[in-house]
Automatic annotation (TrEMBL):
Domain of life: Bacteria
Membrane-traversing stretches: 34-52, 58-78, 90-109, 129-149
Keyword Transmembrane annotated: yes
The protein, known as: Sigma-E processing peptidase SpoIIGA
Origin species: Cohnella soli
């Protein structure tokens, strides 16, 4: 049997790229094209290398799993263990679905009196179909490509609509600058009850190194007023902390209906910006610290108060830092 390595390489390159694109669509990801191509290139190279290498265990189950994990990592990045595991699961689901489609098409188009005719079991435990699967692979890849292409405009529109909710936030305190991605939540109506200052809610992990020792871990489960009490009784002079004069305690009502307190810091100012809009400086704002993780995907780490976004929408020109 004559095997053309270039055709094997190109065939796997096309199929791997289609599988990766469909995985990205399932996970609502927008990977860089170069990363996607590099990942497909790794898979195609691995498939073609079997005809020119004779390395022990190079095509074992473990090696194949490692290559697939590497492909997912190259295409979509890491982004944390939960996000990585979800991407791997979607990649395998799409791969198995594509393989099932190929086998289904092969049996549909192949003429035989028995479903077992034309099938040969190799000594290694593999199955060889008499009907060539290259055509089936191209048919499945073509169907997937057409479906992705037809839904591209709708996906792009949804992505643009979603992007309108995301803002780039830059928080400045003294000489420190922290840039994060934030989500506009029109349901966030948290104010300082005394001054009616809007509160931008942010993961406390952003300021993990700025908070006093132990506060980051304790904010996950404890009320901030207890932190202040324990710090004072434990011999720590809270007023010696560099941001002590910026501390605020903001009362709020949790989803369960119970009343709680949130530790907030008064920044010098916050800059809001997004694509197509000039940055706007917001001086009247507090940064409330949340002890949890706002997005399991790491898409955003703060929630913008709608009053801040409205200030950005009404601004006709960017404000200059003082």
């Amino acid at each position: 049997m004559t095997v053309y390595i270039d055709l094997v390489f190109l065939n796997n390159l096309a199929v791997d790229a289609s599988v990766l694109m469909l995985t990205a669509k399932m996970r609502h990801l927008r990977p860089v094209r170069l990363r996607l191509f590099s990942s497909a290139l790794v898979g195609a190279t691995y498939a073609a290398a079997m005809f020119v290498t004779r390395l022990p265990y190079f095509y074992s189950f473990g090696a194949k799993v490692i290559v697939s994990l590497l492909m997912v990592l190259i295409a979509f990045g890491y982004g944390g263990p939960l996000r990585y595991v979800r991407n791997i699961g979607a990649f395998y689901a799409v791969s198995f679905g594509t393989l099932g489609g190929v086998i289904g098409i092969s049996f549909l188009l192949r003429s035989a009196r028995s479903p077992w005719e034309g099938m040969t079991v190799t000594s290694g435990g593999g199955i060889v179909l008499a009907w060539q699967l290259q055509l089936g692979l191209y048919v499945v890849a073509l169907i997937l490509s057409i479906w992705i292409f037809r839904s591209a405009s709708e996906t792009k529109k949804k992505s643009l609509d979603l992007q309108q909710l995301f803002w780039d936030v830059e928080i400045r305190i003294d000489d420190g600058v922290w840039g994060i991605k934030a989500l506009l939540d029109t349901g966030n109506r948290l104010y300082d009850p005394l001054t009616r200052t809007p509160v931008l809610i942010m993961e406390s992990g952003v300021w993990k190194d700025q908070l006093p020792a132990g506060w980051y871990e304790r904010l996950k489960n404890e009320s901030p007023d207890r932190l202040l009490t324990d710090a004072t009784s434990g011999g720590m002079a809270v007023d010696q902390w560099k941001w002590a004069h910026r501390i605020r305690l903001i009362p709020f009502r949790a989803v369960s209906g119970s009343s709680k307190l949130m530790l907030a810091i008064k920044p010098d100012y916050v800059l809001l910006s997004r694509d197509g809009h000039p940055p706007v400086q917001v001086n009247r704002v507090l940064v409330g610290l949340d002890g949890g993780t706002m997005s399991s995907e790491g898409t955003y780490r703060a929630i913008v108060h709608p009053d801040m976004a409205q200030a950005g929408a009404d601004a006709s020109a960017p404000s200059q830092p003082a």
